Amino acid sequence: MSLQKAVIEIDPRDRGPNLPDRITVQFNPSEYTLSKGAQIAEINIPGIDSPILQFVRGQNEKLTLELFFDTTGDGMGEGQVTDVRTLTNPVYQLVKIQGNTHAPPRVRVSWGHGISFRAIVESVQQKFTVFNPQGIPLRASLAVTFREYKTLEEQLNELNLQSSDHSKQYIVRQNDTLSRIAYEQYGDSSRWRVIADEPANAGLFASPRHLTPGTRLTVPALDVFGNPKGNT
């Protein structure tokens, strides 16, 4: 079985004249790092022991890896040397603005079944360590950080956001009661009356304890005080 090399594919819509279709690494990375964070705001309230934490938004996932390039095997003598920058420059170009898009290109990093990461290159740090007598670099390592790229539509489809301040539809399951649904949707089983009094649910059940599986109920939105939105 042949060694599968990691590949950086450039989105054809973003590819400028100085970029190839794909970049195949010379040597596979020995390790890679995935990281993701969340932006949290502190809400300071006088007189309490610690601030209240409020989730603001998620942050892009990042893939960081180090790529190694070496042309010393091509010989150290003049006329035989291969400048290692001929191998590193295509990667270095990925962080630069392309004339056709006015932005760095979108890419996909793939390595067999282990990595498939759609991203924009956030940073590239080149380090050259071996040189020929004329000062031409022959060995280099590149620390590359890729920042996850997803469209707004892709993110909304993945999140499937639902919360108590937005009305939603609920399909009744076996052994469901309105109290159980209220606890699941609102975190408070005593709010079952909100669902029972929702006009769209009129006639859909005989009692709060006896619901027919498969029935589609409307779960009303609540305001910050726990009352159905629109009620005074």
Structure at a glance:
The protein has helices at residues 85-92, 152-159, 178-186, 192-196; strands spanning 7-10, 22-24, 32-35, 38-43, 52-58, 62-70, 106-111, 115-131, 137-148, 168-171, 216-219. The chain has 232 residues and is mainly beta.
What topology does this entry show?
Blueprint: E1 7-10, E2 22-24, E3 32-35, E4 38-43, E5 52-58, E6 62-70, H1 85-92, E7 106-111, E8 115-131, E9 137-148, H2 152-159, E10 168-171, H3 178-186, H4 192-196, E11 216-219
Antiparallel strand pairs: 1-2, 1-7, 3-6, 4-5, 6-9, 7-8, 8-9, 10-11
Can you describe what's shown?
Helix content is 13%, strand content 33%. The protein has four helices and eleven strands. The strands form three sheets. Strands 2-1-7-8-9-6-3 form a seven-stranded antiparallel sheet, with helices on one face. Strands 4-5 form a two-stranded antiparallel ribbon. It has a two-stranded antiparallel sheet with strand order 10-11.
